[in-house]
Design goal:
CATH class of the largest domain: Alpha Beta
Number of helices: 11
GO molecular function: tRNA(Ile)-lysidine synthase activity
Strand content: 5-15%
CATH superfamily of the largest domain: HUPs
Largest sheet: 6 strands, mixed
Number of strands: 11
Main location: cytoplasm
Subcellular location: Cytoplasm
Structural class: alpha/beta
CATH topology of the largest domain: Rossmann fold
Radius of gyration: 23 Å
Protein name: tRNA(Ile)-lysidine synthase
Shape: elongated
Catalytic activity: cytidine(34) in tRNA(Ile2) + L-lysine + ATP = lysidine(34) in tRNA(Ile2) + AMP + diphosphate + H(+)
């Protein structure tokens, strides 16, 4: 008798999920798959349903209804019912209201992650799996390059970020599509994924195919590899800056940080700017509002000092240089 194993694509998605959960094996912890019903997340849910019981874990699913399209509630219900048929429990629909701040893509993402975080807390999930693939990573890197906000912006999505895990970052989208086909799963194709009004769709449908045509196949894989190396470098620089911060900080209290300019001058540019960013956030600047332009302006108080005035920062803060120190505090600084 010849023993036939699973389809190669099915084996790949199962192996990716198994490796992503290796540290939780045997604990009985709950792991949730975030599933939209598309090929990537549907393959993720099916792989989790297979892997979890064999790894001594519990598996559930959550699907987010953004209420942005007619019939979205019915589609979300169908995803939840399919999950239950796979043996994923709990299986829940999370209905959200999408705002407008930051544009439609950012607003939908904010609503989605807020709902996922609340569900994970409520259900006491040890991890939430996301179905982003290597193709998604390549798109993220290109978008980061367009923003031009430094090494971190091209490091893409992390395989792990808090409770979130992305098992498929090394797998192409073609693998998840093939896995669904092999498992007789029928993904839902979100019309938004073909809508050129969205920047990411234009990158997916126009830019990446053009790069493949002009530069040869394998661009997505190369971009994802670049993201991985950039993340490793960015993590190392962040660790260096974290260890350097105590040597630079003369005072670190609520709404005020005082740094030693001579100590800052000893640091390489990339590390010093990370220290300045950390100091600004510690003093009260919202991290999401602090841009690379803000940090560079503060950095010039160290590297190009000629008596210039204070630099205004988000959150009502100012940075000013006085007597060999750099003071970041709520305005006005007296």
């Amino acid at each position: 008798m010849v023993l036939v194993g699973p389809h190669p694509a099915v084996a790949d998605v199962r192996r990716a999920v198994r490796e992503a959960l290796a540290d939780l094996g045997g604990t009985g912890a709950l792991v949730l798959a975030a599933c939209s019903g598309g090929a990537d997340s549907l393959a993720l849910a099916a792989a989790l349903a297979f892997v979890a019981p064999r790894a001594g874990l519990r598996a559930g699913l959550v699907t987010v209804d953004h209420q942005l399209q007619p019939g979205s509630a019915e589609r979300a219900r169908q995803v939840a019912e399919l999950a239950a048929s796979m043996g994923l429990a709990p299986s829940e629909v999370l209905t959200v209201t999408v705002g407008t701040e930051g544009g439609p893509e950012a607003a939908a993402r904010e609503a989605r992650y807020t709902a996922l975080a609340e569900a994970a807390d409520r259900l006491q999930a040890a991890a939430v799996l996301l179905g982003h693939t290597r193709d998604d990573q390549a798109e993220t890197v290109l978008l980061g390059l367009a923003r031009g906000s430094g090494l971190r912006s091209i490091s893409g999505m992390a395989p792990r970020a808090g409770r979130y895990r992305r098992p498929f970052l090394d797998l192409p989208r073609a693998t998840t599509v093939a896995a669904c086909r092999a498992m007789s799963l029928h993904p839902w194709d979100d019309p938004h994924n073909d809508d050129p009004r969205y920047t990411r769709v234009r990158v997916r449908k126009r830019i990446l195919p053009m790069l493949d045509e002009e530069l040869g196949p394998g661009v997505a894989e190369a971009l994802a590899r670049t993201a991985r190396m950039a993340r490793e470098d960015a993590d190392a620089l962040d660790q260096w800056a974290e260890s350097a911060f105590p040597n630079c900080a003369l005072s670190d209290i609520a709404e005020s940080v005082i740094l030693s300019v001579p100590e800052l001058e000893k640091l390489p540019d990339a590390v010093r700017r990370r220290v300045l960013r950390r100091a600004a956030i510690a003093a009260g600047t919202p991290s999401g509002a602090l841009s690379a332009t803000h940090v560079l302006a503060v950095d010039r108080l160290v590297t190009q000092w000629h008596g210039q005035k204070a630099v205004d920062l988000p959150g009502g803060l100012s940075a000013v240089r006085r007597y060999g120190t750099l003071i970041l505090a709520i305005s006005p600084i007296v």
